[in-house]
Amino acid sequence: MSIEVMRQARNAFVWNLNTDLDNIPACDQWAKMLRKNIYALDQAISEAEKQNKWGGLTDEEIDKAWRSVDYTVPWDQHRIDIARAIEAKLKEKNT
Fold first, then answer.
1. Taking the model in full, what pTM does it have?
2. What phi and psi, each to the nearest 5 degrees, are found at residue 74?
3. Rg (CA), the chain
4. Contact 86, 62 (CB under 8 A)
5. How far apart are CA 27 and CA 33, in angstroms?
6. How close are the terminal C-alpha atoms of the chain, in Å?
7. In terms of C-beta density within 10 A (0-12 exposed, 13-18 middle, 19 or more buried), how is residue 72 classed?
8. Which residue stretches of the chain are H helix?
């Protein structure tokens, strides 16, 4: 489930809860279930947002990756090596 869908579901639960369910004795169970679901969605959204954080490279990191590549190889290999060096740095930073 996407973060946006989780937010929409959470907002729907909050809207239902804000319809004054607490003042209707027969709706006590429903209100408790809504609170429980809202809490669970808050936790799921928070975890999903943490996992979606992505960090790019600074200019210095790009330059360092660029300079780590052997310039004596043919250009076809050189450009692939540069891409692999940048890819490796991004994986290192984002895992």
1. 0.51
2. -60, 155
3. 25
4. yes
5. 10
6. 22
7. exposed
8. 3-17, 28-52, 59-67, 75-94
Are 3 and 52 contacting, i.e. CB atoms less than 8 angstroms apart?
yes
Instruction: Give Cβ neighbours of residue 69 (< 8 Å, ≥ 6 apart).
Output: 78, 81, 82, 85
Q: What is the pLDDT of residues 20-60, one digit of tens each?
A: 666 677 788 888 888 899 999 999 999 888 877 778 889 99
Q: Given its phi and psi angles, is residue 20 left (phi above 0), alpha (psi -120 to 50 degrees) or beta?
A: left
Are 57 and 92 spatial neighbours (Cβ–Cβ below 8 Å)?
no
CB 44 within 8 A of CB 76: no
Question: For residue 92, what are its two tokens?
Answer: 């290192």
Question: Which amino acid belongs to residue 94?
Answer: N
Alpha carbons 34 and 28: distance in angstroms, whole number = 10
